[in-house]
Amino acid sequence: MPQRLLPLLSDQPQSGEALGAQLGVNRVTVSTLAHRLEQSGVPLRISRAGYALEPGTPVPALVGVRGEFGRAMRYAGTVGSTQDEVRAWADDAHAPAPHGAVCVAERQTGGRGRRGRAWDTRSGVLVFSVLLRRDLSLAELALAPLAAGVALHAAATRGMPGRPLGLKWPNDLLAHDGRKAAGILLEAELRGEEARRAVLGIGVNVTAAPPGAACLDEWRPGLTRAELLGDTLAALEHWLAQPPGTVLDAWRAASLTLGRPVEVATPRGPVAGVAEDLDASGSLLVRSPDGTLHTVSAGDVQLVGALSPSHPQGVSP
Questions:
Q1: Which DSSP string do the residues of 34-86 spell out, in sequence order?
Q2: Other CB atoms closer than 10 Å to residue 300's CB: what's the count?
Q3: How far apart are CA 281 and CA 276, in angstroms?
Q4: Are 37 and 6 a contacting pair, CB within 8 Å?
Q5: Segment 47-52 long-range contacts (CB within 8 Å, at least 24 positions apart)
Q6: What does the pLDDT average to over 13-20?
Q7: String of b and e for 280-297 (b: at least 16 CB within 10 Å)?
Q8: Is residue 185 within a helix (H) or strand (E), and if so which, with residue range?
Q9: Mean pLDDT within 278-285
Q10: Which secondary-structure segment (H or E) carries 154?
Q11: Which positions ≥6 away from 302 have C-beta within 8 Å?
Q12: Which of 7, 98, 123, 230 is buried most, with the most CB atoms less than 10 Å from its CB?
């Protein structure tokens, strides 16, 4: 029942009587439903003027969707994981989620990041997942995280003077002092030489961040989660459709990794050296002190030493 109230809410106050008339209930019931939504994590403003969502809440009605991505969208207060929510929606026998479907949540009880890390959600963080339903070749799948990183960088730095954020391979968004502002997780279901479907999860610190992390409000005060979600979905749709060479060049332009000493934890053991470039598949090329060139297709990169104050060139959709 509380979910029936949610689509009627906007960032403008509405009285309990008006909302009750639309639902066919009295204002006391509306108050009960509103408080249940609030308890689930939905950011509500409840006042004498009525009931309203906090400005910029990333509900479908407040997100400026400009293409196929996000045309089908679900929003919730608390879920186990937006990745799992999208996957369950895709498996719905009666109304399966289409390509580009999006799930957004305020809180995750079982959110996860790369390499099994917990994914922290709190007020001011944008967390969502996108369904990629069209078959992806293994080569396309390998480049998808880099394309997503380019898209997120473009959306997050839109209008920023000096582009103060960059990408750590493959797709973490960092401030120039090394603090993390956003992360991306791609999970795919393989079928032979193709991915039957993939789910792309993104978490961005917009107006708040955990200790030691960065948030976009430091450079773009006033940016809302709804605005960023609309911009990111448009950028994702654009960059995931670009040819490999274009994606790789854009990633290089936004990189905070290339030309730097790195330490990489890989499934085959640690690799240390200077990150020289990307190969055609998006793997990271690391030159060790003995001159050996290592090709890293999967691993956890740590940047060594202080980051350069120079800014990446940046890209835009």
A1: HHHHHHHT--EEEETTEEEEPTT---GGGS---SSTTSSEEEEEEES-HHHHH
A2: 14
A3: 15
A4: yes
A5: 47/13, 49/13, 49/15, 50/13, 50/14, 50/15, 50/16, 50/18, 50/19, 51/9, 51/13, 51/14, 51/15, 51/16, 51/19, 52/9, 52/10, 52/11, 52/12, 52/13, 52/14
A6: 96
A7: eebbbbbeeeeeeebebe
A8: strand 180-191
A9: 96
A10: helix 138-156
A11: 262, 263, 264, 265
A12: 230
pLDDT tens digits for 101-112?
999 999 998 865
Residue with tokens 């905070």: 256
Provide CB contacts within 8 A for 83, sequence distance 6+: 112, 129, 185, 187, 199, 201
pLDDT tens for 162-218 read 778 999 999 999 998 999 999 999 999 887 777 889 999 999 999 999 899 999 999
Mutual angle of helices 27-40 and 16-23, in 10-degree steps: 90
Q: Give the dihedral sign, CA 171/313/213/270.
A: positive
**Residue 259: Cβ within 10 Å count:** 11
Q: Is the pLDDT of residue 297 over 80?
A: yes
Contacts of 241 (CB under 8 A, 6+ apart): none
Confidence of residue 115 (pLDDT cuts 50, 70, 90): low
Percent above pLDDT 90 for the chain: 79
Residues 54-58 have a mean pLDDT of 96
